[in-house]
Amino acid sequence: MLMKTSRLIQPSGISLQLSANHHTLRLSDAKKRPDSRAEAGCTNCSADSTCKDDCECRGLYMSCSKNCHCSDMCTNKPFRKDKKIKAVKTKRCGWGAISLEPLEKGDFIIEYVGEVINDATCEQRLWDMKRRGDKHFYMCEISKDFTIDATFKGNTSRFLNHSCDPNCKLEKWQVDGETRVGVFASRSIQVGEHLTYDYRYSSCIEKLLSCNQLWLTMI
Description:
Layout: E1 3-4, E2 8-9, E3 22-23, H1 56-59, E4 85-89, E5 95-99, E6 108-112, E7 115-118, H2 119-132, E8 139-141, E9 146-149, E10 161-162, E11 168-175, E12 178-185, E13 196-197, E14 204-210, E15 213-218
Parallel strand pairs: 3-7, 8-15, 10-13
Antiparallel strand pairs: 1-2, 4-5, 6-12, 7-9, 8-9, 11-12, 14-15
């Protein structure tokens, strides 16, 4: 069981140190990767653009790429820096995550990362979890054939709990041609406030595995 001291002590076999998705794909899967046919990111902005709400790429959930013509003041590169959050033990919901700094609506908080697995691996892992009697699932489908699984490898984003009145939401973006999932503030958030999102309706829909167990699927 996880414990909180000066740093997060993780259970054996689980890594919480991922800073990017880990692709566990065979060569035969390479051409089907969710980002293999994606555009290389936005490259259309003008040199004086700061890429705010009127940015066409922002509306398409496509980050400005390193080859974009926009200025250094570009605001459409949300995955560049995480906000300060930490995992904490809760009284009723096991582990959760809180913000260590004030957040504004629309702020990028952290990327949801894990192992990117194909359909066959996902199905096998789900059966293994069911046989073990696991009660917690950390899977988020990013395309028809691929899923992010943060069960064994991930970061603090895996500790965000469900709420019917959430302060965060998940968004699927194209970043330099790669499909990535970000956690964004859906309203202002105070220091020390628990970070939550709606597993059913916050850019995800639910797929029930058994009572109170949800598999997250991006839409």
